[in-house]
Design brief:
By secondary structure, the chain is of the alpha/beta class. The protein has two domains: 212 residues, Glycogen Phosphorylase B (Rossmann fold), CATH 3.40.50.2000; 176 residues, 3-Layer(aba) Sandwich (Rossmann fold). The protein has 14 helices and 14 strands. The strands form two sheets. It has an eight-stranded mixed β-sheet. It has a six-stranded parallel β-sheet with strand order 11-10-9-12-13-14, sandwiched between helices. Helix 8 links the parallel strand 10 and strand 11. Helix 7 packs across helix 12 and helix 10 crosses helix 13. The longest helix has 23 residues. The radius of gyration is 21 Å and the shape is globular. The two termini are 13 Å apart.
Length: 403
């Protein structure tokens, strides 16, 4: 009997040091795919000399997959003048990648899939209502300039999906209310982190590794580290992050910024303007394994976002034993416990600095064990395999009915 085919659609190359929760989640779905499935990814290439639009057999995380790059995109961490989603959607038009199962992580490319046969799933990664209403830079999401057009497009495309899965409970409820005829297809799904990569050091090892990092960066060995990891994008508001760190003004505390994006230059300028360049290190885009090592030695992880779904990087920090300080956005405030992090009362530099101060000055109130326990229900091996088990059951039921 042939294997059921899952085709995943997203505008990235999994072998690159790409930044973003969607990319990380897709990588996890590939890694933990059971052998009963044939997995394909329609993504982007990074080498102009390699063929485009052709299926290639490749290996990712020890898993054999079929990979088809639609066009060349050498750095998906920085947005270009023409939105990558538009280029990706245009490249899909007129083609057919119909499969037994199809996973989409943006709704725009599904214009091309309207007539494709097979079970389609749409993953919702943000609270779209908060995303559209967020104040500030309209470039954070171009659809914010044309919200009516977005919702009109969504209402046209959404009915093709057998499942609409959101990692945010507010967004889940919103979609049930907006599309009452489809509410039985809408469900909450836990985001998941790779527990084989993100785990804590033992206490003594954490101290040793932290000193090694301090030596590597040329700072005092007693330095405490605060980590931000993510795209330097208006959604994440890294400018607010830098201002909050300046407000913290605690001795021997160093900010690590892991990520890249269109606000990189503005972030550097803000750091220089505030005179804290000696207390901040911008690491750029780092690999997942390198990020895991950094998570394990940090004293706190900070999130300054304007809107979110459930950031995977929060789960990764907690799984590494690191408490989280977050703004009041997305699903993070709902999962954090009093002994695994702090939810800031306001999205201001002073409020975020106060949250960081609580964690840094009272580490015993946020023990490693509590952080790990908070993340445990979101472990990939549990969450992703449950999704695949349900897919396989539906596949077998369809086969039985067709006989």
């Amino acid at each position: 009997m042939r294997k059921p085919v899952l085709t995943i659609f997203y505008q990235f190359n999994p072998w690159n040091a790409t930044i973003g929760g969607i990319q990380t989640l897709i990588n996890t779905f590939i890694k933990y795919a059971p052998s009963e499935f044939q997995v394909r990814l329609v993504g982007t290439g990074d080498d102009p000399k390699k063929p485009l639009g052709e299926w290639q057999q490749a290996e990712f995380a020890g898993r054999e997959i079929s990979f088809l790059p639609l066009f060349t995109l050498q750095n998906d961490n920085v947005r270009n003048l023409i939105p990558t989603t538009l280029k990706y959607t245009t490249a899909l038009l007129g083609q057919c990648f119909a499969s037994d199962f199809m996973h989409f992580h943006r709704i725009e490319p599904t214009i091309a899939a309207l007539n494709w046969q097979g079970e389609k799933t749409l993953f919702i990664h943000n609270d779209i209502r908060t995303q559209m209403q967020a104040a500030g830079n309209k470039k954070a999401i171009l659809w914010r300039r044309f919200p009516a057009a977005y919702f009109a497009l969504e209402s046209l495309l959404i009915r093709q999906f057998s499942q609409i899965l959101s990692c945010n409970t507010d967004a889940t409820q919103l979609y049930k209310e907006r599309y009452p005829n489809l509410q039985d297809r809408v469900a909450y799904i836990k985001n998941s982190f790779d527990n084989e990569i993100f785990y804590p050091f033992h206490k003594d090892e954490r101290v040793v590794k932290r000193k090694e990092l301090a030596f590597e960066l040329g700072v005092d060995e007693k330095t405490r580290f605060v980590l931000f990891a993510g795209r330097l994008h208006p959604q994440k508001d890294p400018i607010l992050l830098v201002r909050a760190f300046a407000s913290l003004n605690e001795p021997n505390v160093h900010l690590l910024i892991a990520g890249d994006g269109e606000l990189r230059t503005e972030v550097r300028a803000e750091i220089a303007k505030l005179g804290i360049h000696h207390r901040v290190t911008m690491l750029g885009a780092v690999t997942q394994s390198k990020l895991a090592q950094i998570h394990r030695v940090c004293n706190a992880f900070v999130l300054s976002s304007a809107y979110e779904g459930l950031p995977l990087v929060v789960l990764e920090a907690l799984a590494s034993g690191t408490p989280v300080v977050t703004t009041q956005c997305g699903e993070t405030p709902k999962l954090l416990t009093a002994d695994s992090g702090v939810v800031c009362s306001e999205r201001t530099p002073v409020s975020i600095a106060d949250g960081l101060r609580k964690v840094l000055l009272h580490p015993a109130d946020y023990p490693t064990e509590s952080c790990v326990r908070t993340a445990k229900p979101y472990a990939a091996r549990t969450v992703v395999q449950q999704v695949y088990n349900e897919m396989l059951n539906r596949w077998e039921q369809r086969l039985t009915m067709s006989v």
